[in-house]
């Protein structure tokens, strides 16, 4: 099981995947926006997105859980 956590304070600009979706290593899960820059959050491992903990428009803090990939 792999947890994907935020590396910075940012706004969730776009959610690209859904719970239950199969992803591969390097796939974009969500796109964050911080200081007018778009920052993709990538899957570090392949698997199934079992939990998606953010929604578009959320403000997340460093260390917040974004998704769990099983």
Structural write-up:
- The chain is built from no helices and eight strands.
- The strands form two sheets. Strands 1-8-6-3 form a four-stranded antiparallel sheet, with no helix packed on it. It has a four-stranded antiparallel sheet with strand order 5-4-2-7, with no helix packed on it.
- It has strands at about 1-5, 10-15, 20-25, 30-35, 35-40, 45-50, 60, 65-70.
- The termini are close together.
- With about 70 residues, it is mostly beta strands.
Tell me the strand percentage band: over 45%
Structural class by SSE content: mainly beta
Let me know the largest β-sheet.
4 strands, antiparallel
Distance between the termini: 4 Å
Helix content: under 10%
One letter per element, helices H and strands E, the order comes to EEEEEEEE
The total of helices stands at 0
On the 0-100 scale, what is the average pLDDT? Answer: 96
Spatially, the strands of the biggest sheet line up as 1-8-6-3
- Envelope shape: globular
Which stretches are low in confidence, meaning pLDDT under 50 for 5 or more residues running?
none
Count of beta strands: 8
- The radius of gyration computed from the alpha-carbon positions, rounded to a whole number of angstroms, is 11 Å
């Amino acid at each position: 099981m792999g947890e994907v956590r935020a590396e910075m304070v940012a706004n969730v600009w776009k959610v690209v995947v859904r719970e239950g979706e199969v992803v591969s290593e390097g796939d974009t899960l969500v796109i964050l926006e911080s200081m007018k820059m778009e920052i993709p959050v990538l899957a570090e491992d392949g698997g199934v997105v079992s939990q998606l903990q953010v929604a578009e428009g959320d403000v997340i803090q460093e260390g917040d859980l974004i998704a769990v990939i099983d």
